[in-house]
Amino acid sequence: MQKNEMAKDLPVMEEQDSTCKICLLSKQARIPFKGASWRATEKLELVHSDVCVPMSEASLNGSRYFITFIDDFTRMCWIYFLKAKSEVAEVFMKFKCLIENQCGRRIKVLRSDNGTEYTSNKFKCLCDEAGIERQFTAPYSPQQNGVSERKNRTIVEMARCLMQEKDMPLKFWAEAANTDVFLLNRLPTKALEKKTPYEAWHEMKPSVKNLKVFGCVCYTHVPQEKRRKLDQKSEPGVFVGYSLQSKAYRVFQPQTEKVIISRDVTFLEEEKWNWKEGSKAEKGVTQKC
Q1: 50-84: buried (b, 16+ CB within 10 Å) or exposed (e) per residue?
Q2: pLDDT above 70 for 188
Q3: What is the C-alpha separation between 58 and 62, in angstroms, rounded?
Q4: What is the model's pLDDT at position 146?
């Protein structure tokens, strides 16, 4: 106002560099978070990890949590399901052995939040013995672990969409989340230049010819050894994902409440199971569970 003469009789004021304590107590805001300025230049140079908040309902095997591990260089993601947070150290050791054997490299840095599952003495000893440097986010600053936080959010949102599309019960959240990660690893990401995480990690392009609609009705062939002469040659079920150990599908059989692995499956992708009546719903008919 003084410089532009916007008012009369203004006292002469000088700028002061000192910080006003009253303003700090009344107006202080958080320092803006800047985008990541550093990226890993090789596999396992940096791994992001985070445990998702507990789900309202247990999964088919009784899990309520999931934990993700993301390689910063390739953005390849792995997901594990937990019944309790105390299992994190054991799961991390299992993950570490798997990927280090796959790529012939060792994990150098692990970035996570300050959750007790990561700061426990057991987890600390595992990292110290393996020579893994640990990076923690500042308290109440999940933005500093943005890669894992955003990935977990994406997984939960995708799982919700997959289940709602076929009106599936909440107990299938783990199957949906596992399918999400399978798909995300085979989809493009802004973090990579014209590559999918699968290709960046395995150094080969993924095949998508086996992709099917999650939650659709399907029929699984019954092996000759498990049926009599005039028995039905297939059984109805619900498609709930892909097997990571073999070229096969995961099918939930409502009659037995079990998930089976089979490659001989016929899919009716536009149909969904009627969970109220215990039978498949008609094509195009919406059934609320």
Answers
A1: bbbeebeeebbeebbbbbbbbbbbbbbbbbbbbee
A2: yes
A3: 5
A4: 85
Report the C-alpha gap between 16 and 9 in whole angstroms: 21
- Residue tagged 């079990």 (tokens): 258
> Would you place residue 226 in the very low, low, confident or very high pLDDT band (cuts 50, 70, 90)?
confident
Q: Where are the domains of the chain?
A: 47-202, 216-280
* Residues belonging to the chain: 289
Q: What is the three-class DSSP state of 150?
A: helix
Per-residue pLDDT tens digits for 123-162: 999 999 999 999 998 776 666 788 999 999 999 999 999 9
Nearest by Cα to 223 from 260, 259, 255 = 260
| CB proximity list for 212: less than 8 A, separation 6 or greater | 218, 239, 249, 267, 269
**From CA 278, how far away is CA 74, in angstroms rounded?**
43
Cβ–Cβ < 8 Å for 136, 80: no
Instruction: Report how far residue 249's alpha carbon sits from residue 264's, in angstroms, rounded to the nearest whole number.
Output: 9
What backbone torsions phi and psi does residue 180 show, to the nearest 5 degrees?
A: -55, -50
In which band, very low, low, confident or very high, does the pLDDT at 288 lie, cut at 50, 70 and 90?
Answer: very low
> Distance between CA 150 and CA 48 in Å, rounded?
11
Model confidence at 286, pLDDT cuts 50, 70, 90, reads: very low
- Does 39 have pLDDT greater than 90? no
For domain 47-202, which architecture applies? 2-Layer Sandwich (3.30)
For residue 130, give Cα distances in angstroms to 85, 267, 283: 21, 46, 54
* The dihedral formed by the CA atoms of 228, 237, 246 and 104, expressed in degrees to the nearest 10: -150
Q: Where are the alpha helices (DSSP H) in the chain?
A: 21-27, 88-103, 116-119, 121-130, 146-165, 173-184, 197-202
Sheet holding 258-262, edge to edge: 258-262, 249-253, 234-242, 216-221, 265-274, 279-280
